[in-house]
Design a protein that fits this description.
The complex is a heterodimer of chains A (399) and B (363).
Chain A (H helix, E strand, L loop, with lengths): L2 H20 L7 H10 L21 H10 L11 H14 L2 H13 L4 E4 L15 E5 L2 E8 L10 E7 L10 E7 L5 E6 L8 E12 L3 E2 L5 H17 L10 H11 L6 H28 L8 H22 L25 H8 L9 H12 L20
Parallel strand pairs in A: 1-4
Antiparallel strand pairs in A: 2-3, 3-7, 4-5, 5-8, 6-7
Chain B lengths: L7 H17 L2 H4 L11 H10 L18 H14 L5 H14 L5 H7 L4 E3 L14 E4 L2 E10 L6 E8 L2 E8 L5 E5 L9 E9 L2 E5 L1 H36 L1 E2 L2 E2 L4 H29 L5 H26 L11 H11 L6 H11 L6
Parallel strand pairs in B: 1-4, 2-4
Antiparallel strand pairs in B: 2-3, 3-7, 4-5, 5-8, 6-7, 9-10
Helix pairs in contact in B: 1-4, 4-7, 5-6, 5-7, 7-8, 7-9, 7-10, 8-9, 9-10, 9-11
Classes of the chains: A alpha+beta (399), B alpha+beta (363).
């Protein structure tokens, strides 16, 4: 660390101490604490001043997070606000006007606004740019109609990031616009979508004449695809980074724990498979660490796609192995009750749940097949697939 | 925390080594190692060892070296892998040098550091860091015994020999030209890292010091740095295959536009990135003598050896017919990668070792 960086780090530590002195996390209301943290520029130090940041390099953020976590401070965005913090916030910071940043980021960070993501549709999964949800201009507002799907936490969200079609007469990537939508609008109908695990992490969201002010548009009209790409790159980094920061965190930890605790489960053939998975998990952890070191400056690019593919493959292999490791309990399941959980609890539940839920890892946030295309075309510079849908107006496509 | 990237100094070092190999041993010329009268690459080794000073990377400054560490040596190994360079860096500047330093030598290493001497550690190349090394016998008239598959013995001036002494393993040095030393080259799967069987019959030697820990340290450092060579091999194979997939056309378009090819390249890219993380972590923990170093070395070997072989196999396959030809250099990398898989123990061996290190017993 150079002398200049030392000075910045010192200054940041002083700011963190001042925040903690004035707002003791143990006795403050979490929302008040987070508001004070935002106003001190310690929400995201790499964001602009006034938008929860101090215009510093992104690399200084992790120290602030560590210090605050050690002091028992509440998590930014409130509990489980992963879409708000991991996807909406960086997108708003990158594309929002100064006024939009002030308006959206503070309530997002305090947890007053829980976010969900209105991207996928029944007819637009891998082909996200094909979304059919329409937004039609009406004075200073847009009127939104359509159906979204795979929306985590829509039932408790106050805000959503939305990709909608504003011009069907141009090729599909050019006719999209990105909005922040108010989920409490009466035209928003949220219905739980039950999945193979028995629970409903996701929802279908029906939008009927929902009014969105033009002031909630992020980026230019017709520029939504570029904005959405920023969100998706952040999402892949978030999913890929589930691989864990210390050794044997996550699923491999559960398997290793069982192997150590229950000698009767062991057999030599499974042992080599266990060690292969252990090595794979450790290398994936290190790869994530290395990616984060490379990303400390700047926005994540498509590189996160590689981590996500690796993480999905690993999670599926380990969870499948774990069922076979337990001949009796592998036949059982912990809970088929339909419930709406706060998030994915990979390690809090039993092997059957992990196995089933991990199937989704190679589908959500871009299937592994689509991500391999992304890697091949966007990182490796291989020629794109032959496509018929790039030149035609969206309305003339075979859908 | 481990820095898994490269410093500016490390990048500068890489540039100088890469330029040397590009000038002096491009793949077309390396191929001659398979000819009955191979090209002599000792000038390339001399340039690397002495002119660029790479032979002394792991030697402390007070002994005439650069006082650098495994991170820098790993970068040299990456470039050696990328060029399949037929230079005895691993055998002399790593294995023999570390063994001698750890055994307390302060004389021979001075010669090694400047590149005026080249040495080889007389253990079979497949020896894993925790394998028992028995050593040759010693009597009143010198050393007697046979060591097979020794890397770099033919190029060495000095053989560094583990010897079964009365109080345990000892390290000795023997001049390769001494009477009673016979070095017989092996016709190897990979001729870019020459192997030889070494026979001692009453050969005169000098005792350096105790060898148990020294040999283990040398093999462990060797295993760590081999992972970086494997990374370099994988990287060359990947880069070359990617370039070919963009340029080769069939059915009226580049083969790299087909998903069957694209997805394999995307997966290989992920694997090469993972190998880079594993290799850098091993090099960094080794350089810092971190408590994790032994585990990191085993993980790197368990992962990178397979990644290099896979990359080389994909390189042959995705090049189609040209990949099978003698003329195209893909086979040099395949042969080196497959042989590297055995060096310092296979991935199976390292997984077994890891199981002990992290308390995941087989039964």
């Amino acid at each position: 660390m150079g002398a200049e960086e030392q000075t910045v780090a010192e200054d940041l530590r002083a700011r963190v101490r001042a925040l903690l002195d004035q707002h003791d996390p143990a006795s403050s209301d979490p929302r008040d604490f987070l508001a004070a943290r935002f106003d001190a520029g310690l929400a995201w130090v790499h964001f602009p001043r006034g938008s929860g940041g101090l215009d510093l390099p992104r690399s200084f953020q992790s120290q602030v997070e560590r210090d605050l976590m050690a002091a028992g401070a509440p998590p930014g965005g409130g509990p489980h606000n992963g879409i708000g913090m991991g996807m909406a916030a960086p997108t708003i910071a990158a594309f929002g006007t100064a006024e939009q940043q002030r308006k959206f980021l503070r309530p997002l960070f305090t947890g007053e606004h829980f976010y969900c993501q209105l991207f996928s549709e029944p007819g637009a999964g891998s082909d996200l740019a094909g979304v059919a949800t329409r937004a039609v201009r009406d004075g200073d507002d847009w009127i939104v109609n359509g159906q979204k799907v795979w929306t985590s936490s829509a039932q408790k969200a106050q805000r959503a990031i939305l990709v909608a079609r504003t011009d069907p007469t141009v090729p599909k990537h050019q006719g999209l616009t990105y909005f922040v939508l108010d989920m409490t609008d009466p035209g928003v109908d949220v219905r739980p979508l039950r999945q193979i695990t028995g629970e409903a992490e996701f929802n279908e969201v029906f939008l009927t004449d929902v009014r969105v002010p033009d002031a909630n548009r992020l980026g230019p009209e017709g520029g939504g695809w570029k904005v959405a790409t920023t969100t998706l790159n952040n999402e892949r980094v978030a999913i890929g980074s589930m691989a864990g920061v210390t050794r044997e965190t996550g699923m491999i930890g559960k398997v290793a724990e069982a192997w150590r605790a229950e000698p009767q489960l062991r057999n030599p053939a499974m042992h080599d498979e266990l060690m292969r998975l252990w090595v794979e998990a450790e290398v994936t952890r290190l790869t994530g660490l290395r990616l984060r070191q490379r990303l400390t400056a700047g926005q994540p690019g498509p590189e996160g796609a590689g981590m996500k593919v690796a993480f999905a493959r690993l999670a599926q292999a380990i969870s499948g192995f774990e069922i076979e490791l337990h001949p009796e309990s592998g036949l059982q399941y912990d809970d088929w009750t339909m419930r709406q959980p706060d998030g994915v609890d990979f390690t809090g539940r039993e092997p059957g749940y992990r196995y089933l839920r991990a199937r989704g890892n190679s589908i959500e946030g871009g299937t592994s097949e689509i991500l391999r295309n992304t890697i091949a075309e966007r990182i490796l510079g291989l020629p794109p697939e032959h496509r018929v849908d790039k030149e035609l107006a969206w309305k003339d496509l075979d859908r | 925390m481990s820095d898994l990237l490269y410093s500016d100094t490390e990048e500068a070092l890489r540039d100088s080594v890469r330029r040397l190999f590009a000038d002096r041993c491009p793949p077309e010329s390396v191929m001659s190692v398979y000819d009955p009268a191979p090209h002599d690459f000792s000038d390339v080794w001399h340039a690397l060892a002495a002119d660029l000073g790479m032979a002394g990377l792991l030697v402390p400054e007070q002994l005439g070296g650069a006082g650098a560490g495994a991170r820098e040596a790993a970068v040299v190994m990456e470039e050696i892998g990328r060029a399949v360079a037929p230079v005895p860096f691993l055998s002399s500047a790593v294995l023999a040098t570390v063994a001698l330093l750890e055994a307390g030598d302060t004389e021979t290493v001075k010669g090694l550091a400047t590149g005026s001497l080249t040495a080889a550690l007389a253990v079979p190349l497949p020896t894993a860091p925790d394998d028992a090394v028995t050593g040759v016998s010693v009597g009143g008239d010198g050393l007697t015994g046979r060591v097979t598959s020794v890397a770099g013995a033919s190029e060495a001036d000095v053989l560094v020999v583990p010897v079964a002494g009365p109080d345990g393993l000892e390290l000795h040095t023997v001049s390769r030209d001494a009477s009673g030393v016979a070095v017989s080259p092996v016709l190897a799967l990979d001729m870019t890292r020459p192997l030889a069987d070494v026979e001692f019959s009453s050969a005169a030697s000098s005792r350096v010091g105790a060898a148990e820990a020294a040999v283990r340290a040398a093999l462990e450092t060797g295993a760590v740095l081999l992972a970086s060579e494997q990374l370099g091999i994988a990287q060359w194979c990947f880069d070359t295959t990617l370039a070919y997939a963009k340029q080769r056309k069939q059915f009226g378009r580049a083969i790299g536009s087909y998903q069957a090819i694209k997805h394999r390249l995307a997966d290989l890219w992920i694997e090469v990135n993972s190998a880079a993380a594993a290799a850098r972590y091993a090099a960094d923990t080794c350089a810092r003598r971190d408590g994790e170093a032994t585990i990191a070395a085993a993980v790197a070997q368990a992962y990178c050896s397979g990644a290099a072989v896979h990359a080389a196999e994909e390189c042959v396959q995705l090049h189609g017919g040209i990949g099978m030809t003698w003329e195209y250099p893909a086979h040099l990398y395949l042969k080196r990668a497959k042989s590297d898989q055995l060096a310092f123990g296979t991935a199976y061996r390292h997984r077994t070792r890891l199981a002990e290190l992290v308390d995941l017993p087989v039964s």
